[in-house]
Amino acid sequence: MAFDQLVLETYAPLHNAYFDQLSGVDLAVDTIPRMRLRADMSVLPDEIVADGPVPLGRVLQAGVDCYGNPTRARFVVFRRPVEQRSRTPEERSELLTWILTALVANYLNLDPRDVDPDFPW
Questions:
Q1: What crossing angle do the helices spanning 2-17 and 89-108 adopt, rounded to 10°?
Q2: pTM (2 decimals)?
Q3: What InterPro entries has UniProt attached to this entry (predicted)?
Q4: What is the total count of domains within the chain?
Q5: Is residue 14 part of a domain?
Q6: % the chain with pLDDT above 70
Q7: What's residue 42's pLDDT?
């Protein structure tokens, strides 16, 4: 629960800064990545934020589910990979800021440095 709260707190300034553009986007936390990636992929799709081959977050675009119902766009943060890459709460917060900034930038088709001038490449 503390992780989910940290994700919400980290996302809030981004959501507020781009309120109109992000008003139709949901935010979710999943324990682990649940996606089919080919084992031979050396570069992941742009909508996936990763540490090497390990996805840390993903943008799911709005679409239609298997029942024909419309779905909203969603940012998904993967808890376990993030926790494994951060030893302290400060590191976790910094990593989440990086992930969420990259997800927002991808969704808005912006350079992450346009969203956060201090974005580390």
A1: 40
A2: 0.91
A3: Zincin_1_sf
A4: 1
A5: yes
A6: 93
A7: 62
